[in-house]
Amino acid sequence: MDTSLCLRLLLLLTISEILIVIECSQDVQVEVTNCGVGFELIQHRFDTLQYKFLELSVNVMEFSEAVQNKQRSIEEQIFRLETSVAANLALVTNYSRQVLELQTICSNHDHIRNELRKLQPKKSALEKLDSPNSCTEGSDSGEISLDILNISYPVDVFCDMTTFGGRWLVVQQRVENTVSFNRNWTEYRDGFGQPTNNFWIGLEKLYQLTTHDSYELFVELQFANGSLGIVHYSEFRVGSEDE
């Protein structure tokens, strides 16, 4: 073979090897470059996930702390409510006891009032024992408490011991015109006024007096000019309300 031809072949082979090496080197560099870009992307994603994980952990811790605080607040409110309920229950118990005591006191008062009512007739009977039965038992003119049959209480009246021999029971008297005698039936039946002033004893009392004893009626009228008018009845009686 020609020497120059061999040199050309060798040169071509050498150049081919160099090209192959260069191509292989370029392929490896591209692969290495691609691997570096993928690693950086994975690292970035990992860092992002790690940040999100840390952020989530912080949120979980904050939420857990908020839940614990809320639980403590609820427990404190429950404790305060239980304390308030216990205090209110104690107040209700105390008030119930006071109400029971007041009911007992009121019951005792009712019992006492009933006993006093039972004693009232006895008291009236004792007062009537000390009361005179008529104006014949005194000697001086004045107001007395008179015991009238079928009247449950002593009646205050005025006894005149000077006019026409005295011993007169004043059943009506008008001293001045300040008190009106224009009254209804009930007032004339029961009486009104004061014995020493303008006074009317009452028809019911007159009925009881004149039914059980004999009475005279003496009427004295004094006119504005100073003159007197006198009327005397030897017998005097007043009928009952039914009559």
How do the helices and strands line up, and which of them pair or pack?
Layout lengths: L2 H128 L11 E5 L8 E6 L7 E3 L1 E2 L11 H6 L1 E2 L5 E2 L2 H10 L2 E8 L5 E9 L7
Antiparallel strand pairs: 1-2, 2-3, 4-6, 5-6, 7-8
Describe the structure.
This protein is α+β, with helices and mostly antiparallel strands. It folds into 2 domains: 86 residues; 95 residues, Alpha-Beta Complex (Gamma Fibrinogen, Chain A, domain 1). Helices cover 59% and strands 15% of the residues. It has 3 helices and 8 strands. The strands form 3 sheets. The protein has a 3-stranded antiparallel β-sheet with strand order 1-2-3, with no helix packed on it. A hairpin with a 7-residue loop joins strand 2 and strand 3. The longest helix is centred in the first third of the chain and has 128 residues. It is rod-shaped, with a radius of gyration of 64 Å. The relative contact order is 0.04. The N terminus is likely disordered. This is Ficolin-2. InterPro entries: Fibrinogen-like_C, Fibrinogen_a/b/g_C_1, Fibrinogen_a/b/g_C_dom, Fibrinogen_C-term_domain. One of its GO terms (cellular component) is extracellular space. It comes from Culex quinquefasciatus. Pfam families: Fibrinogen_C.
